[in-house]
Amino acid sequence: MCFAPIALADDFKTINGKEYKSATVSRVESDGIVLRTKSGITKVYFTELPKDVQERFHYDPVKAAAAHAAEENAKRAEVAQQRNADDRQSDAGSIHGGDLAMGAESRLGETFEQCVQRYGQLVRRQGNPDNPQFIFEKDGVTIGINFLDGKAGQISYSRAAGVPFHDLEVQQLLEVNSGGSSWQYDEAESHRVRSSAYSKRECFKRVDGGAFAEHLVIAQLGTHFVNIASADYNKAVSAKQLQGF
After folding, report:
1. How far is 239 from 241, CA to CA, in rounded Å?
2. Is 90 exceeded by the pLDDT of residue 53?
3. Which of 22, 60, 151, 183 has its CA 20 to 30 A from that of 85?
4. Residues 27, 5 contacting (CB under 8 angstroms)
5. What predicted TM-score, i.e. pTM, was given to this entire model?
6. Cα–Cα nearest to 124, from 103, 109, 145, 153
């Protein structure tokens, strides 16, 4: 449930002290406001904002809870419909069931030599020279690997446009990269508003905090990706201190 955009430039501060300077209120929803700042678009929930801001935007917890429940029901119905459609889809290049884990089971922390042993020769090298991505292919899956200190820090699995990763396959890829821990669905990250060409995001985080993953689709191309990255790799990227391969 959304209201018309409100073209206001203002400063907002959450109850935890996080500030959004010169933010424009893009739209008001039942459970929060969507802010546009120079760094991007962010949704801030009313529960994170002071009482006076909640009152300013007429926050009603009861209505917000009802709207959230309706939204979740709609999402579950959409997911169920998509799963039924995926189950009916067949593709000669698709990998199903246990075959995916057997064919594309690269793990975080593997060396370049281990990746070559698993997939065969390197197909190509692409991207930033300071942080190149090494591309392998096997059984209809393209595997892009970024290395940190000589070990796989991020792995990107993708298929041809229109060929999805089924839920079981996503779980298999997560499991082989569990590092002895387990994964949980990251609801907050999955629902975070983004200005991006990607859609249908599902985000996950490892319980031990050692890795993060996302299942996404390039909206215009219909290409599915499952990206898995170690926490150390993400920190290095954020700090721009990658030593690469």
Report:
1. 5
2. yes
3. 183
4. yes
5. 0.57
6. 145
